[in-house]
Design brief:
The complex is a heterodimer.
Chain A (H helix, E strand, L loop, with lengths): L29 H27 L4 H26 L16 H21 L1 H24 L20 E2 L15 E7 L6 H7 L1 E5 L19 E5 L11 E3 L4 E3 L6 E3 L5 E4 L11 E3 L5 E3 L16
Antiparallel strand pairs in A: 1-2, 2-3, 3-4, 5-6, 6-7, 7-8, 9-10
Helix pairs in contact in A: 1-2
Chain B lengths: L1 H34 L16 E4 L5 E5 L3 E4 L6 H11 L1 H4 L23 H9 L22 H14 L6 E4 L6 H11 L1 H4 L6 E2 L5 E2 L7 H10 L13 H15 L15 H24 L3
Antiparallel strand pairs in B: 1-2, 2-3, 3-4, 5-6
The chains are: A alpha+beta, B alpha+beta.
Chain lengths: 312, 296
């Protein structure tokens, strides 16, 4: 404590005299400072007048802002300079009186509460119980928004999408994709028909449809019929954290996730060859019907998207 | 005795397990590069399934399209000039026949250009990517074009004369385009790689999506329709009208963004803006604070 006070001479304000050095201005040339401050105040006043004028003639917003902001800035600079250079230097130290009440006062207050109030509350057991119960229920109800903010239960969407046997692949506008629509190296995001405008379709069912060849394409053993005429389809949900994997590089044959740069090889069943994604993107088995529409053979064979507790 | 053996054995096991990782990676990458079907030649990109098809007296298509985009075949009269230019500027890699087989005979290293369509040839030359500064680089960068528009058209005319193909060189009709639809289509189809501001961003394996800030309307159509480099091609799933809308959006809002503060900060989004605001604003406030609190 004593170190803190080393440079600060405690001064009794009552005993100050006019020639006390603490009352002298901080600046070496107070007249000059005074003039400069006066100038800033004049500038601030002029800008304020300009602000009033600009408001009156309904000027551009930036003129209103510039005049008012400039005026306040000049006032601020002047005020700070005034306090800094023209006011007494200090430091002044004034002891503060104790804020707390005396022990006797506090004891008397506590006694008064217990004496007068305690008996009253004890005599109204039922009311007290009702109030307590109500507050307790309020506490429980207050949890509801918190639970609700977690969103709806995912239920079966964790395991199944809306792709069914025979679902038409439609684009964002609901148009069915036909076999002639995509050239080699093209990509389009598709949904099972009817879900393209739904939240669930956007969240769970979104699928990228890529044409990588003119002939039936086999990405992995056992998937010989899954990519007819070179149309391969993968879930658009990254297996890392569920970002939309929509960045298709057609020469490298990679699907890249924009969030953490996981790269999936389109030609071998979307096995990740870079990044944090732990699993391949699930592939959707397709077929082409007699009219040339792209349709799903069935749902994905594994859950889409990132991992979760109960994932098999 | 046994403890030394145990120690040594576990050390070997440790090393072996750690060596497996890189080894597997190496084997995996070798396998992957062997099976990757690179698409260097794509014949007849896009067919003229259009409202208006104009043919000359011998039945060759000279232009096709609709009220949104007209695709023109380059004039065959330019083919002679084009061949000469091709021999000077392109043949050392793409070969005298434009088939990707250079004079020394080893084909496969460079793309076969026959049947790619005039729009592809025009795009690569007029965007300055060809003739390539470094033919072995992963991705050709956009530069100031070395050949002018006429020369590019002439080369396209000659390559097209070897095997007439599509798409032709497009002329979008931006007067009928709808900017709002273009914005929605851009967000859906382009923003994933080029970012919603059109500044482009990094992709995988040292490749990147280039910025769209300074690209003429014709080249935007050409890129969408032909899919240069790693960009996917957008054919049947985007109509000419939709492409026209996208081009209008790119050449208006993307290339002339409205920055209310006058300082776009590269369109990197609220995080970058907040960072700059904090660094500048807090820095200035700190300076003011020092001045206010300073004592003689």
């Amino acid at each position: 404590m004593s170190e803190l006070h080393e440079h600060r001479t405690p001064v009794s304000l009552k005993g100050l005299s006019a020639d006390d050095p603490h009352l002298a201005p901080a600046a070496r040339n107070p007249q000059l400072v005074e003039r400069v401050i006066a100038l800033t105040f004049v500038a601030g006043t002029l800008l304020m007048l300009a602000f009033g004028w600009a408001y009156w003639i309904n000027a551009m917003p930036w003129k209103l802002g510039a005049t008012m902001g400039g005026g306040l800035t000049f006032y601020g600079i002047g005020l700070i300079a005034w306090a800094k250079y023209l006011m007494p230097k200090g430091p002044f130290v004034e002891e503060r009186h104790t804020l707390a009440n005396s022990d006797a006062d506090r004891d008397a207050f506590a006694a008064a509460i217990v004496e007068r109030g305690g008996g009253v509350v004890k005599r109204r057991k039922m009311l007290g119980g009702l109030l307590g119960g109500g507050l307790g229920i309020f506490g429980v109800v207050a949890m509801f928004p918190l639970i609700r903010s977690l969103g709806p239960l995912p239920k079966s969407t964790l395991f199944h999408t809306d792709w069914r046997s025979g679902s038409y692949a439609v684009d964002q506008s609901g148009r069915r994709i036909q076999v002639g629509d995509l050239a080699i190296g093209s990509i389009v995001t598709v949904f099972p028909e009817g879900t393209q405008d739904s939240e669930r379709g956007q969240a769970v069912d979104q699928t990228v449809l890529i044409r990588i060849s003119n002939q039936d394409f086999t990405t992995q053993k056992g998937r010989e019929t899954w990519a007819p005429m070179g149309y391969v389809a993968y879930s658009k949900l990254c297996t890392h954290l569920g970002c939309p994997v929509g960045l298709y590089e057609q020469q490298l044959q990679l699907l890249v996730c924009p969030c953490h740069q996981s790269a999936f090889n389109v030609t071998n069943g979307a096995i990740p060859n870079f990044g944090p994604a732990p699993r391949p993107l699930p592939q959707l088995p397709l077929y082409i019907d007699s009219q040339g529409y792209i349709r799903a053979q069935r749902d994905y064979h594994t859950p889409v998207g990132p991992g979760f507790w109960e994932r098999p | 005795m046994t403890s030394t053996l145990l120690k040594r054995g576990s050390a070997y096991l440790f090393v072996a397990v750690f060596a497996m990782g890189p080894l597997l990676l190496f084997v995996g990458s070798a396998h992957a590069s062997g099976s990757r079907p690179y698409q260097t030649t794509r014949k007849n990109a896009g067919t003229p399934n259009s409202d208006v098809v104009k043919t000359d007296s011998s039945g060759v298509v000279i232009s096709y399209g609709n009220s949104a985009i007209t695709y023109n075949a380059p004039s065959p009269a330019l083919a002679t000039l084009g061949q000469a230019l091709f021999q000077q500027n392109c043949a050392s890699c793409h070969g005298n026949e434009a088939n990707g087989v250079p004079a020394n005979g080893t084909g496969g290293a460079y793309p076969n250009l026959v049947g790619l369509g005039p729009a592809t040839i025009d795009f690569w030359i007029e965007s300055g990517r060809m003739p390539a500064a470094d033919p072995r680089s992963v991705q050709a960068a956009r530069r100031v074009a070395r050949l002018n528009h006429q020369q590019a058209i002439a080369i396209a005319a000659w390559v097209n004369s070897l095997s007439p193909s599509y798409p032709g060189i497009p002329t979008p009709n931006l007067k009928i385009a709808n900017v709002a639809d273009g914005a929605a289509l851009f967000a859906l189809n382009c923003a994933a790689c080029h970012t919603i501001e059109g500044d482009g961003d990094a992709l995988a394996h040292s490749t990147y999506a280039p910025s769209l800030r300074n690209i003429p309307a014709t080249q935007v159509v050409e890129a969408i329709r032909t899919g240069p480099g790693n960009m996917p091609r957008f054919t049947g799933n985007l109509s000419d009208y939709q492409v026209n809308d996208i081009v209008k959006y790119v050449t208006s809002y993307i290339q002339h963004p409205q920055n209310p503060g006058g300082f776009g900060l590269g369109g990197l989004g609220p995080v970058a803006e907040g960072f700059v605001g904090l660094a500048l604003g807090v820095g200035l406030l700190a300076l003011v604070g020092f001045w206010v609190g300073e004592r003689q």
